[in-house]
Design a protein that fits this description.
Largest sheet: 2 strands, parallel
């Protein structure tokens, strides 16, 4: 019985970490996007190929959270193409 309680605790801690990480990373990206009046944000600013790959991995990893966020009315969505850049329209 103790092992089940321990496993349950670990699973709750993992779920809490997953959701917390999504909230922090997405909200930082949304703040950057809102600053330039964009609806598209990045989890990781795509400054090089490695960062582009990390952004795409985050999009896949957080897909359930992104879907729930959209259902709850978020106007922001992560960029599907990391080769795009956030910049002010001139």
């Amino acid at each position: 019985m103790e092992i089940n309680r321990w496993i349950g605790g670990v699973l709750v801690a993992c779920l809490f970490s997953y959701i917390s990480t999504y909230i922090v990373m997405s909200r930082l990206g949304m703040q950057r996007a809102a600053a330039i009046d964009s609806e598209v944000y990045f989890f990781v600013e795509p400054k090089n190929a490695s960062a582009e790959q990390r952004h795409l991995v985050c999009c896949d990893l957080f897909a359930p959270c992104i879907t729930i966020d959209r259902w709850l009315g978020s106007r922001f969505i992560p960029a599907a193409c990391p080769r795009l850049r956030l910049s002010r329209a001139g």
